[in-house]
User: Which sequence fits this backbone?
């Protein structure tokens, strides 16, 4: 069997001709396998959706209970057969419930990574390399300039600022699914026991994380809290809220933003970020290269970002490689739009 008979790009996303289903389709389709709950991968309106239990629950929170005609939860490592194609899900380490999709037919194995990272994250299962012939890798940070520091070091930087400025509010911009909860957990791991205040847009997803056994400590809503409570406090909010009237309630706030894009200082200046925190839920350049090698693959298909550099790297390692040039994939903002170079990074 040729790889393109098992999986190929199409106008609606990655399509399996052999199995007659799509992986992370960009438009409504009869059958979809979804890697994780971010809106550039998980769209509403499919007739049937297969994903991890957590991803299905998060899609229901974001889109409503009727986001799909039918749903099928699949545990990590569990295998089903769809029209003769074996399908299983394996941890991607991106956010809660995120998965790589392993496809197998006639001895050929293709793994679609979705979004992934090989760095430690207390809020989700760690990335699991899956042996395959073809690995479909994202490349959000697919340039050698992107080498992320340990998230613990960036968290220490934030908490040091909290100690230095005990009268000021630190507002941390963090995307609502994954990054916000990871920042909470990282602060708890670092010994920060004070209550954390959250924007209302984060409440439902944060509550779901807690319901899945992820310890985040005392989380309080911003609304209803007295202004005096915010002195020396950390407030976590969607990035889109940090420039509007909502942020003006805090006394002399220090604006922070947790994102891999904060490695680019011009981004921080453009956003008016005083304390950039380079914390990403995607693999950096070294992580991408190491993860690809760990799969033992013979061929790499690259999508979602800086494709050409990673393709070149793979070819210099005697791997067959090609960019997919997929249309419709990007990084989402908090309203669900997909502007270039913004999103769940």
Assistant:
């Amino acid at each position: 069997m040729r790889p393109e008979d098992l999986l190929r790009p199409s106008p609606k996303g990655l399509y399996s001709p052999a199995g007659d289903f799509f992986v992370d389709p960009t438009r409504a389709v009869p059958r979809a396998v979804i890697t994780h709950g971010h809106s550039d991968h998980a769209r509403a309106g499919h007739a049937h959706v297969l994903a991890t239990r957590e991803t299905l629950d998060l899609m229901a929170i974001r889109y409503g209970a009727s986001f799909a005609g039918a749903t099928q939860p699949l545990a990590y490592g569990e295998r089903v057969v769809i029209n003769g194609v074996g399908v299983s899900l394996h941890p991607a380490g991106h956010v809660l419930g995120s998965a790589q999709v392993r496809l197998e037919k006639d001895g050929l194995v293709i793994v679609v990574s979705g979004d992934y990272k090989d760095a430690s994250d207390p809020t989700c299962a760690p990335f699991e390399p899956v042996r395959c012939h073809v690995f479909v890798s994202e490349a959000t940070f697919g340039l050698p300039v992107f080498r992320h520091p340990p998230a613990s070091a960036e968290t220490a930087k934030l908490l040091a600022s909290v100690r230095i400025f005990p009268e000021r509010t630190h507002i941390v911009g963090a995307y609502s699914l994954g990054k916000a909860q990871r920042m909470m957990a990282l602060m708890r791991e670092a010994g920060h026991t004070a209550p954390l205040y959250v924007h209302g847009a984060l409440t439902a997803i944060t509550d779901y994380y807690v319901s899945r056994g992820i310890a985040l400590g005392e989380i309080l809503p911003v609304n209803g809290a007295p202004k005096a409570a915010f002195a020396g406090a950390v407030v976590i909010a969607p990035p889109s809220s940090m420039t509007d009237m909502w942020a003006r309630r805090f006394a002399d706030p220090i604006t922070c933003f947790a994102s891999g894009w904060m490695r680019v200082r011009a981004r921080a200046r453009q956003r008016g970020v005083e304390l950039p925190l380079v914390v990403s839920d995607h693999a950096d350049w070294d992580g991408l290269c190491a993860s690809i090698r760990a799969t033992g693959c013979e061929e790499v298909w690259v999508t979602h970002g800086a494709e050409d550099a990673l393709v070149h790297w793979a070819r210099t390692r005697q791997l067959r490689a090609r960019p997919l040039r997929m249309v419709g994939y990007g990084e989402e903002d908090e309203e669900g739009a997909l502007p270039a170079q913004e999103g769940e990074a």
